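Now for my pick.
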Amino acid sequence: MDAAVTREILKKVRQIELRTRRLVTDAMAGEYHSVFKGRGMDFDEVREYSPGDEVRLIDWNVTARTGVPFIKKLREERELTLLLAVDVSASGKYGSNTQSKRELAAEVASVLAFSAIRNRDKVGLLLFTDEVEHYVPPKKGRTHVLRVIRDILFTTPQRRGTDVAAALDFTNDVLKRKAVVFVISDFIEPPDAFERLKRQLRTTNKRHDLVLLHLRDRHEEKLPALGLLTLEDPETGEVVEIDTGSRGVRDSFAILARERMEQFRRAARQAGVDTLELRTGEPYSHALYSFFQRRSGRRLG
């Protein structure tokens, strides 16, 4: 890699860090902390029992030795692992605005990763297509997060398709302890893949705190009337010529897009997994902040 390319990569990564820093500092880190608690309660020390203490916390071994009731003091085990599972299939290159889905994925991942390290959590990265392309084990620190952003933006995948279920299967194998897992994808898969996806979502959600960030682009849901167009499916390579000037063609395209969307939503809903939809070229900060607030309120409730 020559020096000019390296400078361009570093510049792009730095731009994303600067764009997301204020959001993390002002709002997201606190919301992240309130939503994603530690893995559980860790033993701290024992102290003498006082009236009103919970009986279930009595340490019977110490009580038996001393003849005086003692209880266990617990503290929250704060450190978490955040895994960012990012779809780098060919459809991620698309974006009808000034931003591709892959660039949006990198920005949102940056917000989540910097929020995590501000809370002293570890961050890992999984890049996938229809197979696992790249895995970075969880670590702490700003330098590590900058590497994560770089890899999302500039890793060249070997394949073009999408298999979210396979990525989740890998996640369950590699993460031995409960983690927070964000899958960032457009979830564009063959129609027959959603039943398998639902099963894998359910399995992963039992082991980890799973959230799906669904990246969308308006022109993948509604065609503009531009006359005859030659379109190529980026993941299969199939090329078709369609008349976008035809209302019937545009309506059929929109119906198929809605059906695919509903298949994904149904799979996530039936698996009990939280989802958040984000669009290219549109501000995401409010949607992400509101999502965390709703999730935090549900936990407290």
